[in-house]
Amino acid sequence: MKLDLSNALLNSELKEYQDKVNAIHQSLLDKSCLGNDFIGWLDWPLDYDKEEFDRIKSVAEEIRNDGDVLLVCGIGGSYLGARSAIEMLNGLYPDDKLEIIYTGNGLSATYLQQVLNHIEGKSVYLNVISKSGTTTETAVAFRIFEKYMYAHYDKEEAQRRIIATTDKARGTLKALADAKNYRTFVIPDDIGGRFSVFTAVGLLPIAASGVDISEIMKGCQKAHKDFQDSSLESNIAYQYAVARRILEQQGKCNELFVTYEPSMTMVAEWWKQLFGESEGKDGKGIFPGSVTFTTDLHSMGQFIQEGTKNLFETLLLVENPTYDIKFPSDSDNLDNMNYLADKSVNWINKMACLGTIDAHVNTGKVPNIILTLDDTSAFSYGYMIYFFFRACAMSVLLLDVNPFNQPGVEVYKKNMFNLLGKPE
Ligand code: PA5
Fold first, then answer.
1. Ligand 1 centroid vs 188 CA: distance in angstroms?
2. Under a CB-based contact definition with an 8 Å cutoff, are residues 123 and 67 in contact?
3. Are 249 and 306 contained in the same domain?
4. In a domain, 422, yes or no
5. Quick check: 424 pLDDT over 90?
6. Which of the residues 99, 107, 132, 141 has the least number of beta carbons within 10 Å of its own beta carbon?
């Protein structure tokens, strides 16, 4: 992974932050930082439970062999990571026998009914994922699909096909899973939802989709090693963390995450949760948004180019995309497109990207931070998520905000529970 700040239009030097970065880095290592109960993710690439990891692989294999559909039932940090990996690594239309369907991430009856219609007659597995075990969206969908399972399989078979990923000892879902003899996987106490994709939360669905999850862990391990040193000369996660803070000081309070691959749109959704939920507190923070180019150049491009000058872009590019296509020549050339004949479509996409960077940075004066992944492999995915974890923790701690809680999320829940008449 590479970071290029040459188009970031920074008016201060990263090195001015070195002392602060060193202190925060140390407070992460000695676990004295804000929110220190939730930094289990920091050494997880080395400390992860190897026995559980093997069990994840073998249950995933069983799902792949016996299932047509895996229903992944979860929301927020218990959903976005798995989907971001599965779409980035397998593409949007994978040629795989097992279909992954996401549910429990909203309350639309239409969506739920359409999923119920769609899975009829298929061999279904259900993985419910909830750390608290009480999340309304997940619990509503889970009860509906659990009933479906008991209506379509005998008791023992339904029990075999329902798998719960939740707290190791506490919570409603853990108690329910134990009472009904469902297999369970653990969400570690000290890892919050948005930092949990490389635990069973993400790894079971990702492995079931056919991805080699050992490669993801290898990518995380490499990033863990690369980001041990807090020097802003070499640590690109901390360079990104500091660059965001400098841009915020320059009045850039909106960050647009830009990808040029539609299969990475869910990576952007995952990134938005990571930074939005970690940073948006105490009246502070950069608002995280996202666009997929070149699609959104035809909808949001005008605003980025000439609208309010309060945003910057963070591009996540891929050096070697999964496929390429040669643009065909046509003897009639009625569409006047022969000037691109025999060119690679990836090259065309790259020229669009370079033209856009030039337009946004040099004409529009919109700062661009440019991240480049080597490819869309499982290793690169693992490296990338750990890069963003380290960058997010550093960037938010530089604001003197606890990156690992989300107190504001409770406000809507309280109102909703009152309206729904939930007993105390
Ligand atoms: O990052 C978070 O903590 C949240 O997005 C949670 O993951 C989300 O609310 C789901 O919570 P739970 O796993 O308890 O159902």
1. 13
2. yes
3. yes
4. no
5. no
6. 107
